[in-house]
Design goal:
The structure is a homodimer of 188-residue chains. The first copy, chain A, has 188 residues and is mainly alpha-helical. Chain A is built from seven helices and three strands, in the order H-H-H-E-E-H-E-H-H-H. Chain A has a two-stranded antiparallel ribbon with strand order 1-2. In chain A, helix 2 crosses helix 3. Chain A is elongated and about 60 Å long. The relative contact order of chain A is 0.10. Strand 3 of chain A pairs antiparallel with strand 3 of chain B, so a sheet runs across the interface. Chain A binds a DNA duplex (30 and 30 nucleotides) through helix 2 and helix 3.
Chain lengths: 188, 188
DNA sequence: TGATTAATGTATCAAAATGATATATGGAGA
DNA sequence: TCTCCATATATCATTTTGATACATTAATCA
């Protein structure tokens, strides 16, 4: 059941279609998951231990047989797959968003408008570079969308593109307002 | 300097334009901040203690003088205001997004498509009701946008509206794809 | 009036996550 | 050979979460 630990579910999900080490898991999180999830070694390794203890995954220590160093590769078990499916079917999902950018903007009244403009501009730059990456993901995906698995990746990519484009529209608007170039008023 | 504690900054920001109790702060976080920030009592009360100890805020115990119960009202100090301004001017902002909805979708290949459609639909409903609230915020704001402070609130509201509308467009698209009504393929 | 429920208010706790750091090996290039 | 970087596991202090405990005041309503 694994109480509240989200990292457990990330690990089960990832292990469901390939065997991975803790380090590999971190790379996946910082790679394709990074647009909607994050996590650090400090929660990965404890989660691996606890998952193994409850039999949801098992490890296959790759002996330093001949080449490469010793590492611990994990596999999902039948019990683990069952757990994963149960979680996917749960109706409640908690989406936790914490935008420090927006927080600064909300309190922006204390400072000069230039400060807030700089905050927005920094955000805008980050979004622009992320968006570029997402667009190349999408282009590469479109050619292999026959495989069912790719559809799910495609959906998370289009989510990112759709929302990042919305961010950029807002950034442009916000900068206009903050620099006094746009008078905000009700049309009515 | 307050190391890494974000709650400290939320508290300083809120106290900057009104005196509040810990309970009030929770209400603000769950109210106007809730679209881009969150926090619980478990971090509010410890933060209040540490902020007071470092002289960035001070408390005015409202004696149960005659009416109402005893409560601890906090005020920001000059040092606290200086700290707040320093944070606002920092160039790095960390926006931490964790969408359990997207995580489930990413791993959706294990389950039937109906499971993923349900996940999207649940998300869609939540977004729709939040969006309705944000729109009434915007309508009410438009009439008082002459005051500088309101502009900053307005910006966080339009951010929410812009992104929530993007979410809804994506939801419609995702449901089509998952129910097989739309063939995803590259135009080229 | 009395009784019950809801809102206010402060506080703590176990569990989880963060962000940083420690430690060590293997491979690539200069 | 030396240096640098990617790989790999692990831990730690600090923060955050989500829940719960506890007590008081206000509101509802029978």
């Amino acid at each position: 059941m694994a109480s509240d630990n989200k990292m457990n579910l990330v690990i089960l999900g990832l292990l469901d279609h390939e065997d991975l080490t803790g380090y590999d898991i971190k790379k996946r999180i910082d790679g394709s998951l990074r647009y909607f999830w994050k996590g650090s070694f400090g929660s990965i390794y404890p989660a691996l231990s606890s998952l193994e203890e409850s039999g949801l995954i098992r490890n296959v220590k790759s002996k330093s047989s001949e080449s490469g160093r010793e590492k611990i590769v994990y596999k999902i078990t039948a019990a683990g797959r069952k757990n994963l499916l149960a979680w996917l079917s749960e109706s409640k999902s908690s989406n936790s968003l914490k935008y420090e950018t927006l927080l600064k903007l909300y309190f922006g009244g204390v400072a000069d408008n230039e400060v807030s403009i700089a905050t927005v501009t920094e955000f805008e730059k980050e979004v622009e570079s992320d968006l570029a990456v997402l667009r190349t993901y999408k282009d590469n995906l479109s050619t292999v969308l026959d495989e069912r698995d790719h559809v799910f990746f495609y959906l998370t990519v289009t989510f990112g593109i759709e929302t990042y484009e919305a961010y950029l529209r807002w950034c442009a608007d916000a900068k206009k307002i903050l620099s006094g170039k746009k008078i905000v008023r009700n049309k009515r």
